[in-house]
Design goal:
This protein is α/β, with parallel strands linked by helices and 336 residues long. The protein has helices at residues 16-37, 40-46, 52-73, 111-125, 150-158, 172-180, 206-215, 254-263, 278-285, 305-321; strands at residues 2-4, 76-78, 82-89, 91-97, 130-136, 140-147, 191-197, 218-224, 231-232, 234-235, 238-239, 249-250, 268-270, 291-298, 302-303.
């Protein structure tokens, strides 16, 4: 895999055609000046030691040096080396509700965006732990398998929206089951699910799913997003309405979330505007016995810029060694 750390320097390559153009223009200006003195062909015979071809060769070598120098400035890197990473931590699966009700504006700008921001800040604080992401509405999907690649976790997080799951609804049981199946075999005792939702369970059986997860050592923490009084749900510039034309008001159902957290040996936190609730939950999770985790990851990229600088220096030396005159008495003398 080739990566460019500073690709903007490749724009310098666009200057190479202008180097040839400038040299060609300088030759034309020189010929015009000579023509004012006398016949250019006669002047050429008077100075036979001047080589026109060598001038163009010097410009070509200088341009090649400039080309490789620009590529070197872009800092080519190779990342093909793999390294096994060892750590002690906890595996955390975040199950995020992406149903339309998460578009309600209890928070700024809405429930879903506020949850995504909180998760992104959580990822920045992780050290040695693994994180995965499940998104759910009427059904659930693994958005990001369990990983220590925190950069990828934030990228996947940014791509989540209300349309990420086509089937609407809030299937809490399926979200818990999918999350429980997503852990690796390395963390039998160090597994936790963080369920982020407004709690409007449309399918039922969430408590049975939570109990089944708890029996295999998985703790379930719930963050309630929204308010008991509720808010209307904006969809496509309008407010969501039911089949009778009434405006749908999405309300936080704390009772089901408290029950899930209790059965799942975890805790329930209601999200606030200033403190979303992830920090106290993470403090609780850190008390869980940590497991020894190993994973294969890309090691730091190998810098390759020095090789391109070396090639650039080689062509620059060649350019300096080529004399502009056939006699070659002074190898550093430029053509006049």
């Amino acid at each position: 895999m080739i990566n460019l750390a500073q690709p903007q320097y490749l724009l310098l390559i666009l200057a190479i055609p202008f180097i040839f153009l400038f040299y060609w223009l300088s030759l034309r200006i020189k010929r015009k000046r000579i023509s004012k003195i006398g016949d250019p062909s006669l002047v050429d015979k008077l100075i036979p030691d001047v080589s026109k071809g060598r001038g163009w060769l010097k410009v070509t070598f200088f341009s090649l040096a400039f080309l490789f120098f620009a590529v070197g400035l872009a800092r080519p890197q190779l990342g093909a080396r793999l390294k096994e990473k060892e750590s002690n931590g906890v595996e955390i699966m975040i199950a995020l509700d992406v149903s339309n009700s998460m578009l309600a504006e209890d928070y700024s700008p809405n429930r879903m965006e506020r949850a995504k921001l909180a998760i992104s800040r959580l990822v920045d604080k992780l050290q040695g732990d693994r994180i995965g992401l499940v998104i759910f509405a009427g059904e659930s999907f693994i958005q990001l398998p369990i990983t220590t690649d925190y950069v990828s976790a934030k990228i996947f997080m940014n791509n989540i929206g209300a349309g990420s799951v086509p089937i609407q609804g809030t299937a809490l049981a399926e979200a818990i089951t999918t999350s429980a199946r997503s852990f690796s075999s390395q963390s039998d005792k160090s597994r936790a699910i963080i369920l982020i939702t407004d709690g409007e369970d449309h399918e039922g059986n969430a408590l049975d799913a939570a109990k089944a997860a708890a029996e295999i050592g998985i703790r379930i923490y719930c963050i309630g997003v929204g308010s008991p009084e509720g808010k209307p749900v904006p969809v496509n510039g309008d407010l969501l309405k039911d089949k009778d034309g009434n405006i749908v008001v999405s309300r936080l159902d704390e009772s089901i979330l408290r029950s899930i957290a209790s059965v799942g040996n975890g805790a329930y936190v209601r999200a606030g505007n200033s403190e979303f609730g992830l920090n106290p939950i993470i403090d609780n999770i850190r008390e869980i016995e940590k497991s020894h985790l190993s994973s294969v990851v890309f090691e730091d990229f190998d810098e390759q810029y020095m090789y391109f600088f070396g090639i650039a220096l080689f062509f620059l030396i060649l350019e300096m060694l080529i004399a502009g005159r056939k006699t070659g008495r002074n190898i550093f003398k430029m053509e006049k």
